[in-house]
Amino acid sequence: MEDIINLKLLYLLCLLLNLFAYGILADAPSDKGKSFASSQHYTFGVIPQFKKNRMFQIWQPIVAILEKKLDVRITLVISNSIPEFEDLVLQGQFDFAYMNPYQVLLSNQSKGYQPIAFDPSSKLQGIIVVRKDSKISTLSELAGKEIVFPAPNAFGASVLVRAELSQKPNFEYSPFYVRNHDMAYFYVVNGNFMAAGGVKKSLEKQPKLLQDKLRIIYETKPVSGHAIAIKPTVASEVRDSLYQAFYAMSKNKQHRLLLQKIPMDDVAPASLDIYNELTELGLEKYYPQKEY
Length: 292
Hints:
Layout: H1 2-23, E1 41-46, H2 52-70, E2 73-78, H3 82-90, E3 96-99, H4 101-111, E4 114-118, E5 123-124, E6 126-131, E7 146-149, H5 155-165, E8 174-177, H6 181-189, E9 195-199, H7 200-204, H8 208-211, E10 214-219, E11 223-224, E12 227-230, H9 236-251, H10 253-260, E13 268-269, H11 272-275
Parallel strand pairs: 1-2, 1-3, 7-8, 7-9
Antiparallel strand pairs: 3-12, 4-12, 4-13, 5-11, 6-9, 6-10
Helix pairs in contact: 1-2, 2-9
């Protein structure tokens, strides 16, 4: 009981910080008080896997380093939800973006975005978790139950999981969608839902108090992970400089620690060929799409 109270307090604190971040940080330009030799200004959109304030804490130091290395202004944009982020990407609103594997393909088809960097050492793997003290130990025991997911288009945590669940014979369930991975995990720990979809990497980034209350009962097949992509209107020299900046960060001990919070351990060149494997999985029916 005491642990649940502590988790609720932790979640309330995160919500308060989230409001602070939305009211102050969301509109705060990353170049405040800085001067740049170049007049170039770019936007960097990031898929919101975690709460908004936490996303700013992870990405603002990285963007500050990128600004210094490229000598340009970069405005960090953290959307309120994964669907909102995807809408903006597919409208071509960002010059640079960190996106999930399927968004790499969709953004290339809609606006010509090109992936330039990814972590080759890290595969994206969807999971289903339950409370550690739950009597549920197999997937079949969730038949007919409600499962909470971060969002319909959260690729690893929702699309991959739902696609594989649809192939299970005689397995029906009701999906419920929230805004991000943090909320999905919390609702299971808090007893609102019996199970949640997630990914291994996001579970590992949760507070230990929450991690210790969850147990994985299902894992999907792994696929290539998220990528840094760039809009085709951005000059090739900026594209090359952006990649070199991320690569240099991965080789710097302190900067690598910042990348690991994304999470991104290593940096290597990315290409569409890496993500074309997804077209063979027949995921279209599980991925909500709009016309742009």
